[in-house]
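W.,

You were right to be curious about this one. When I first looked at the sequence I had no strong expectations either way, so I just let the prediction run and decided to look at it fresh. Below is the sequence, 168 residues in total, followed by the output.
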Amino acid sequence: MSIDDRLRAWVEAIDGDLTVPVEAAKFVAQLREQDPHALSAWLDDHAESIVSERMRKLLTSDRARAQRRGAAREFATNAERAEAGENPARPSLAWFVVDESHTRRRLRDMTYADLDFAASDYEVLSKSNAFEAAYLRAVQKRLPKNNTKVVSDVLSDDLLSALRTAAA
């Protein structure tokens, strides 16, 4: 059985809530104990995608952190960094996806077409998020407000599918 098959079986066997980092740690610990060579080979085979995903998360988290800070706090942080002789953070250094190949480019180097692609990408994501929110609100309306029942107590998979279609 491949590592991917084992991982799929692991996830499917979870009954209840799933916290990805916790389950990943348990899964890896089990593999390290039971089949360290298979784990090592799998990690080697997937090294590029693992590093790519980590790189993507680093770039995204840097931009998100700057957005959360807000302009006033960012100005204060930049002033402190400048006084300490460091380069202050600059919005022009933020990275964005600029094409279908997921090429990332710093804001300062983006063309009109790059900006159009990036903005359109965020608009699509916004619509997707709005759809998911509408679907979850439709499901929520079907549950009693007493907070003791769960979705599976009240709604069948068929009704959930119908609600998803209606939300679209």
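Here's what jumped out at me. Strands lie at 95-97, 104-106. And, maybe more interesting for your project: The helical segments are 3-13, 20-34, 36-45, 47-83, 112-142, 151-154, 157-167.

Coffee later to discuss?

I.
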